[in-house]
Amino acid sequence: MRIAVIGPGAIGGTVAAWLAQRADLDVTICARSPLPSLTIETPSRTITATPRVLTDPGQGEPVDWVLIATKAYDAEGASRWLTKLVDDTTRVAVLQNGVEHIERFTPYLPAARITPAIVDIPAERNAPGRIHQRRDGSILVPNDAASFVDLFAHTPIAVSTTDDFRSEAWRKLCINAAGAVSALTMKPAGIVARDDVAAIMWMLVEECAAVGRAEGAVLDDKIEDEIIARYRAGPPDGINSMLGDRLANRPMEIDARNGVIVRLGKKHGIPTPMNAMIVTLLETAAA
Ligand SMILES: NC(=O)C1=CN([C@@H]2O[C@H](COP(=O)(O)OP(=O)(O)OC[C@H]3O[C@@H](n4cnc5c(N)ncnc54)[C@H](OP(=O)(O)O)[C@@H]3O)[C@@H](O)[C@H]2O)C=CC1
Ligand SMILES: CC(C)(CO)C(=O)C(=O)O
Q: Catalytic residue among 71, 172, 222, 266, which?
């Protein structure tokens, strides 16, 4: 089984290193910047891997699975690898946040080839190829992607299918929408201990859930409370990937995580002032 992972950052590096633990999986990393090896501090032990690393999209060869793990805003760059990696049988999984995995890549691939994946693995990249995976975590894919699930059978990552991918993706977006307060304040997840911060996060989730429901997602009535409780139960020093981007002076996934709520809210006539404010403030901070 040949697998190419495009984007060996926090998620791509973690996933590639776990896949490479199985000798019969032939893992290739497609990187923008050269990478010596992968060292992942996982919850149970440190794992290492030295997969083949390509830095030129022209060097790729067809594989069975392509896993795209760049940031959402790097979709166009990621797509340049696809010409060589994809043949008539290749499936392409998009391991990104947001609810637009398929739309993001249909300019480059037929939708039927694309497997959207919801990743819930808190991971931080400390240096090229050196990653701290804080939880074993999970990946959810639609129920026509059982062969993706099989790839991870030897890993502690809980990879499974869902009958209702749309609802799960919006549920994850609710988590990410609230996490924007960390990127804005440049502080880790522990800020949720303040009741006034939690109230802002609650409203961000409320708007996200309203838009999600209008888009057809089925979300629990108490999702706001559930997500605040989840943040409060998590590690106070947790750095979500948008905060990680801001701290590293990289672009942030503002549009994929909060902008999308505002855009789709407009489509349904649902007001989203809290998310609109976050988008404006983060864009201003990044300018
Ligand atoms: N980190 C986390 O805890 C989680 C992240 N996610 C989501 O997963 C996705 C990936 O996030 P994350 O792993 O944190 O991101 P990172 O920024 O850590 O990694 C992205 C990687 O993509 C590489 N890249 C960018 N453009 C290209 C290109 N054209 N060709 C090859 N590689 C490229 C970057 O290269 P370079 O090294 O040059 O920057 C980097 O290695 C995002 O959508 C994020 O929201 C989901 C759950 C948890
Ligand atoms: C919320 C979290 C940490 C979950 O994996 C995430 O999605 C991110 O950091 O982007």
A: 172
Distance 151 CA to ligand 1 centre (A): 20
Ligand 1 pocket, residues with Cβ under 6 angstroms? 6-12, 30-33, 69-72, 74, 77-78, 95-97, 119, 121-123, 125, 241, 253
pTM: 0.97
DSSP the chain: -EEEEE--SHHHHHHHHHHTTSTTSEEEEE-SS----EEEE-SS-EEEE--EEE--GGG----SEEEE-S-GGGHHHHHTTHHHH--TT-EEEEE-SSS-HHHHHTTTS-GGGEEEEEEE--EEEEETTEEEE-S--EEEEETT-HHHHHHTTTSSSEEEEES-HHHHHHHHHHHHHHHHHHHHHT--GGGGGSHHHHHHHHHHHHHHHHHHHHTT----TTHHHHHHHHHHHS-TT---HHHHHHHTT----HIIIIIHHHHHHHHHT---HHHHHHHHHHHHHH-
Would you call 172 a catalytic residue per the annotation? yes
Q: Would you say 206 and 173 are in contact if contact means Cβ atoms under 8 Å apart?
A: no
Contact indicator for 39, 147 with CB cutoff of 8 Å: no
**Series of mean pLDDT values for 10-residue runs along the chain (287 residues):** 97 98 97 94 97 96 98 97 96 98 96 97 94 97 96 97 98 98 98 98 98 98 98 96 96 98 98 98 96
